[in-house]
Design goal:
disordered C terminus, five-stranded antiparallel beta sheet, Alpha-Beta Plaits, alpha+beta, 8 strands, disordered N terminus, globular, 300 residues, Znf_CCCH, DNA binding
């Protein structure tokens, strides 16, 4: 497989979507565009009034914390807080508090839902071959799973099957660490997939149990593709397990190697520390200059 820098690449999955024209597949590539106070009167002294004020302010803070992200919250948008997307977008009357860091990144509209494409073209949904749609989705899922695992261990990869403008084709990737999510977000910025620029940002969603539609999971959602909760499209469990064994295993091996290397360094340091002779100033300076050079290397 080619490097993620430069030409577009295909994943290890079956290359079927190139010939049939359904959505889902594509390939990554680089592009030039991205994407208390004083009281008086009464019989109350400062201490008593200050205590009452503290109780009142504490109760207010607890109340705000309790209703944050719920329908009772008239300031913050509950849908953006739970789902990371809101059908009102920038016109929403409530705040969309976008996180500066998160374990989860959102790549908006990355998956090209073939049903949405047919609807946009006023086509006949009966013309879609569901088996072909599922196979091409599996190719897409495998390709992006492999790409996103380059930055760290994936805890969840969720792809929306919704048809609403704010959720259609959304890809949510949750990492085991915020630093891994930040590396993925930085790498995807300015890149293209299937000839379309990627729009990637941090998402407030870290618990997808509140975001996904329970009725859809049970096969009973009567809102269809325009439901405001996530309709998560899945792959076979056997395929999911195989992907996790193949790609997430590499990170487990790397983490184990780092831990073992750390133990060895610690033992080596203790052995060196037991010696009576201390390093010479020249050796200290060489180590310091070497460390400074490594920190000054710009990240690609």
């Amino acid at each position: 497989m080619a490097s993620r820098y430069g030409d577009e690449f295909r994943g290890r999955g079956r290359d079927r979507s190139r010939d049939r024209g359904y959505g889902g597949g594509g390939g990554f590539g680089e592009g030039d565009r991205g994407y208390g106070g004083r009281s008086s009167g009464g019989g109350y002294g400062r201490e008593r009034m200050g205590g009452r004020r503290s109780e009142q302010s504490g109760g207010g803070a607890e109340h705000l914390a309790r209703i944050h992200g719920t329908e009772e919250d008239r300031v913050n948008c509950p849908f953006y807080f739970k789902i990371g997307a809101c059908r009102h977008g920038d016109r929403c009357s409530r705040l969309h508090n976008k996180p500066v860091f998160s374990q989860t990144i959102l790549v908006s509209h990355m998956y090209q839902n073939p049903i949405a494409q047919v609807i946009a073209q006023n086509g006949d949904l009966a013309s879609l071959d569901q088996r072909q749609v599922d196979e091409e989705f599996e190719d897409f899922y495998e390709e992006i799973f492999e790409e996103l695992c380059k930055f760290g261990k994936l805890e969840e990869l969720n792809i929306c099957d919704n048809l609403g403008d704010h959720l259609v084709g959304n890809v949510y990737a949750k990492y085991d660490d915020e630093e891994h999510a930040a590396a993925a977000q930085k790498s995807l910025y300015g890149r293209f997939y299937a000839g379309r620029p990627l729009v990637c940002e941090f998402s407030p969603v870290t618990d997808f149990r509140e975001a996904r539609c329970r009725q859809f999971d049970e096969g009973t959602c009567n809102r269809g593709g325009y439901c405001n909760f996530m309709h998560i499209k899945t792959v076979p469990r056997s395929m999911q397990r195989e992907l996790e064994r193949t790609f997430n295993r590499d990170h487990r091996v790397k983490n184990r190697s780092r831990r073992e290397a750390g133990v060895e360094r610690g033992e080596s340091s203790r052995r060196k520390g037991s010696r009576s002779r201390s390093p010479s100033p020249a050796k200290k300076n060489r180590r310091s200059r070497s460390h400074s050079r490594s920190l000054s290397i710009p990240h690609s």
